[in-house]
Amino acid sequence: MARRGLVIAAPASGAGKTTVTLALLRALRTAGHDVASAKSGPDYIDPAFHAAACGAPSLNLDAWAMSADSLRARAAALPGELLIVEGAMGALDGAGQGGRGSAADLAQALGLPLVLVLDAAKQGASVTLPVSGLRAERPDLPIAGVILNRLGSPRHLGIARAALERRGVPLLGHMFREAALGLPERHLGLVQAGEHPALDSFLDTAAARLAAATDLTAIAATAGTLTPPSGSATRLPPPGQHVAIARDTAFAFCYRHVLDDWRAAGAKLSFFSPLQDQAPDPQASAIYLPGGYPELHAPRLAAAANFRTALHTAAAKGVTIHGECGGYMTLGTHLTDAEGTPHEMLGLLPVATSFAKRRLHLGYRQLTPRGGPWSGPLAAHEFHYATITDQAEDANLFDATDAEGTALPPMGHRRGSVTGTFAHIIGPR
User: For residue 358, what pLDDT is reported?
Assistant: First the structure.
């Protein structure tokens, strides 16, 4: 059970939080610490890298979508004595104008201090400014210290170190600028951990660089004690008592806490690969197609005859089938790839989607079901570049608002027992 922890944050996206977090997790594990990890917010990709770095599954902790008690209960249930949480975006960035659900909000809910990752590439003594600003904005939030990233030379380090010392800011570690410490990206973030050709080597290299310039025992000593929960986590009920889940590189965006919730409710979970033209277990009472990258594998999905037949058979029997984002596009009639080539999908929902003209859709969503496997308000998140090119207007699944309650057009579709939406459900609202 996790008892102590730190939140790794930064003044802005792109400072190197993920690289530093992965290096720290692997270095602490190598040094014999019992570590667990989590990611602030709705990001699907980073937790898989965390799991590779520390050898244990990572969890999303979302301070916008989850109550303080849910956050505390989920954090406390993680294995490992020391919890390392990676923030998202800048430390104060969250939903709406108020930034609700930020890494700072999560740290406060958990009772944990921040470690700030500062990108020193284009500054020297000015590295103190983000620390001063955060102290002014959130004086109630302790800052354990900073890790300097992308330093250019020992002289550069000396200038920054001296400035931090003058401000009484602990320097916990540093990393020099190095091309080998970059991770490949695509349109939804990092290339998935399972697709990284030499991930273990990368993690070992990053950990070695950080450990050589860091007192790991001192970092562990700065961890705060997790605030214990006074209640239990709010859980999303399973869509059936046996849920068959698509799992491969085209369908990889599945929240671990959701699967844990379904197991805790007594549901059986089984897995199948549409890319391998596998069918879901015929005994399943529900089928779940999570998000991922179907647009990168559209020809294979279009040719997966066994998968197609099995889904149509299940739909005809009234089996609950739900797709999110990539799964939603797969349940539609056609998916047009980035080159403008249309590919026939399952045709179980009246929607066609396209990547030929990309448009970013991003933000938290509050959903009220019009039907389907869930009832009551739901917290969700939308992040994709696909556009809808054709759809039925009379079969929507959710009424929707944004994070601040502003009404949005209805979301998703339903036909019989088949439902789908671009939004990823995080849990009950």
Answer: 84
d(CA 43, CA 113): 21
Give the domain extent around 279. Answer: 242-428
Looking at 92-193, which runs of residues are DSSP E strands? Answer: 114-119, 143-151, 171-176, 185-186, 189-190
Q: pLDDT by residue (tens digit) across 39-74?
A: 999 998 899 999 999 999 899 999 999 999 999 999
CATH number of the domain within which 324 lies: 3.40.50.880
CATH classification at residue 128: 3.40.50.300
| DSSP strands (E only) in 11-135 | 35-40, 59-61, 82-86, 114-119
Nearest to 387 by CA among 427, 314, 328, 322: 328
250 in a structural domain: yes
pLDDT exceeds 80 at position 189? no
Question: The pTM is what?
Answer: 0.93
Q: Report how many domains make up the chain.
A: 2
Using pLDDT thresholds of 50, 70 and 90, give the confidence band for residue 37.
Answer: very high
Residues annotated as part of the active site:
325
Tell me the CA end-to-end span of the chain in Å, nearest whole number: 26
Question: Does any domain span residue 175?
Answer: yes
Tell whether 189 is covered by a domain. Answer: yes
